[in-house]
Amino acid sequence: MTSEILSQSAATADLATLRHQLLDLFCELAYREGDFVLSSGKKSTYYINGKQVTLHPQGAVATGRLLFSLLPADTQAVAGLTLGADPIVSAVSVISVYENRPIPALIVRKEAKDHGTMAYIEGNRLPAESKVVVLEDVVTTGQSAMKAVQRLRDAGYQVEEVISLVDRQEGGAEFYASVGLKFQAVFTIAEIQQWFRKSQPA
In the chain, what are the domains? Predict the structure, then answer.
């Protein structure tokens, strides 16, 4: 089983091997084909639930290591919109300690707290103009992560890049380019689908 392989090597495998193992884990746990209705109301012939991977213990380690490796050298924090990004930013922050380059994690609420500080952003307050990279599990149109980008900018942070585990290739990359944001993804949905079909019994 993929999870057994990952449990032996997620913390020590080279990044190329780790990427293939995480792709296996996505196909095993997160990707399904059939008839689905997405949160947008749009119908789809497949569904991918990234939290099945990012909340998996070895999946979290693999996610943290791969995304950490993609961060610009001047990154001062990682952040994302709750709920999908919560385990991702936490994993990257934990991995950063083991890499001797501690990077705080921030979680952006969809709505401000209705009590206490009324905050949109959870996590340690950073100096103004700190460089923050927004992380996402699955990007479709790009609008979800853009909410996080805007909240972070409103709080005084610099945000120039979004990194996702999966790009569904439905306009997200083009949207980010149109608003001047850099974007990269670990996997495209085409790559996951190809890998998934190869793994199916003949």
Answer: 50-188 (3.40.50.2020)
